[in-house]
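Schema walk-through. Below, the input block comes first and the output block second. Nothing else is stored per chain. Lengths vary across the set, and this one has 126 residues.
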Amino acid sequence: MSRSLATLIVEDCEDDAELMVRTERAMTAYRGLLQAGAPVEQVENQARTVGALLTEAREKLDGAQLSRATTFVSALVILLREGAEAILVVAAIISDPEAAATTAEELAPLVNLSPAAFETLACGAV
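--- output ---
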């Protein structure tokens, strides 16, 4: 009986979620042992358990490969999102020129500097 791709993806995600939960619980137990001052042998055993779980996670991740198209689209979406954010910031500054034209005398008290020192820092002379 063949399974659909969606079924395989859901099962893989469930496996990953289960591995993540087991790893987090093992790491929490490890930290608890360290904080409680547990015997060295017990801490080392828990450290080996955590190491094995992290190795299993690494092996799963090494086998996962994104296609070139998926990588390109992901990078493009990030680039477009960051560009849109920059445009919004510039638009907000341009939309209120009075707020953008704050003087050194107004800003200096906010950073505990004299107006002259603030102007020097703002101009990059330092």
